[in-house]
Amino acid sequence: MRFILILAAALAIYWTGLSGYFKPMLISLGIISILLVLGLVHRMKIMDGETAPYGNMHRTLYYSVWLFREIVKANVEVVKAVMSPELEVSPTLVKVPTRPTTDIGKTMFANSITLTPGTVSMEIGEKEILVHALLEPMSASEGFDEMSARSAWSVGEPLDRARLM
Amino acid sequence: MLIQLVSSVSESATAGTPVSMADILHVLFSAFSILSILAGLFFVLGGTLGVLRLPDFFTRLHAAGMTDTLGAELIILGLVIQAGFSQMSLKLLFVAFFLLITSPTATHAVAAAAYQAGLQPLLGRYRAPEPGEETKQ
Lengths: 165, 137
Prior knowledge:
The complex is a heterodimer of chains A (165) and B (137). Chain A is built from 6 helices and 3 strands. Chain A has a 3-stranded antiparallel beta sheet, with helices on one face. The model of chain A has no long low-confidence stretch (mean pLDDT 82). Helix content of chain A is 59%, strand content 11%. Chain A is elongated. Chain B is elongated, with a radius of gyration of 22 Å. With 137 residues, chain B is mainly α. The mean pLDDT of chain B is 82. In chain B, 75% of the residues lie in helices and 0% in strands. The A-B interface holds A 14, 17-18, 20, 64, 71-72, 75, 78-79, 82-83, 85-93, 110-124, 130, 132, 134 and B 42-43, 46, 49-50, 53-56, 58-59, 61-63, 65-66, 69-70, 87, 90-91, 94, 100-101, 103-105, 107-108, 111-112, 115-116, 121-128.
């Protein structure tokens, strides 16, 4: 029930953000579509903390700032490699152990890996993710350890400080 | 456009009319947004070059990922600054947010599909062939 209310609030904010009109007809259309979505979600029985992951927004925001810095760094490296005349690349496959235990945590981690240019997650298993890296140094495990610990933290799992430093 | 702005400010400065703070801020914001869009275009160019130059499917995915992250995000950042504090910039932020969620998901789907279908990634060191050298495919 709590998640239904959270999802309804998030959808309402989203609707007003996109429409920007406050005429009765448009508002009621919005309410009808929100109710439709809630009905669908209820019928599909997928209503839980992962459908409405808004409880850890502050952590996710903090994490995305860190992730953005990583993305910028990786982008610069990939641009350098691609634009150099020799085009020196060393594609590597590496198995990375995952720390997040929940589905949403794993999704967050795998998506963060893919979002960082130079690494793409190819296969997601129970305990590890198969990662394809464009440059061999990018497949070093320290970087993945930190990202994995941070992404687990960002979805509300307890922080493991030892892994961060 | 930037040159126009700067020249309009400097004209009003030489004409003796005081340059208001708002004008300076306007020029600064425009300059920042133009710089951001240009940087975004640079990364899009890098991604395109990468897709053309890299040897196999999986390495090309990395280059394509570059256009959807920094390329697209920097361009959107520039447009948000152009739009100012309005509903338009809120919508642009939504676009940026959804790009950040959907593009890695799509990339992963494509990579996983190729890997499961049995496409073997090229591993080890690779360097571009010299001009005229035979490429082995």
